[in-house]
Design goal:
The protein is built from 15 helices and 2 strands. It has 338 residues and is mainly α. About 3% of the residues have low confidence.
Amino acid sequence: MGGGSLKSMVIAFLIPLPSIFFYLFFVHPGGNATPFSSWCTAHPLVLANLLFLLNVDIIFWLIGLLSNYHWLMDLYRTIIPLMLLHYYRAHPVAVTDTARSTVAVALTWVWSARLTHNYLRREGWELGKREDWRIAQMRVKYGKTWWWISFFAVYLSQQVLLFGICLPMYAIHSSNKPWSIWDLMASAACIVGIVIAFSADTQLHEFVTTNQKMKQQGKPTVPILDDGLWRYSRHPNYFGEQLWWWGLYLFAWNLGQRWMFVGPLLNILWFGYVTVLVERRMLQQEHRAEAYKLYQRSTSVWIPWFRKTVPEEQEQRRTTVWIPWFLKTITESKQKET
């Protein structure tokens, strides 16, 4: 392990400690309750947002400025929802159905493990290896003003998004309504979303790894991934991730907190923005542009669906079938003549 990776690991481990200690001393103070601790206990959502602002937005941002690259949010995006879930579950005012809470905790641990594994695998199992390419693009775009714009673009925006999509976790721990068929449906949607996202990310990782090996061997690479789940959706990993959050929202819907749809709705807008950036990047790469344009015309954006046959594909299929047949016929004719 390199020195940079070890340093990043220490930072990643230490950075949530202020919030953890604050929670233990002021939200769960034991018998030493104070007016301040009573206020903290009475306002779980407000307190969680304040801790996020101070411990994540400001401290992560300052570390990013000092190190000149912002990587912490990429890692903690996979962990913060899990931390919020346990915060809501262990909060003194929590009220919940044991079965629903247990299932939500188990599912969120699986979701977090899946996403964290994908992050580490993508980064070569090295923390803080690089800055997300979208952040790097914004750094170049905003130049000298990036130091303050980064606070809003990288951190504060993520606070709005993460708290929005995690609202159902608060709803789950604010009602003791008995388990019902709707909870079963919500659980099924969450599981399907996790499986789809994991499968799609694994297929993408194998595609990227294979292309890297082929490039190192001096062999031509494959321009786009259009096999497996990627044959039916241009972004099946995004679809799986959104299905997970909508499944989680079903828990809140069943508990009467239907307004919490704003969370997964924000997530759709976020993934819409990310999709535009990713596809724009693909079209800017000369060796992929033409193949990706054809891929865009034939394949669904998010929701997996049957692939359309476009004129270019029909021509390609005719060529693929006809030319080998023609060459074979010519060869056989010459063999008969001789």
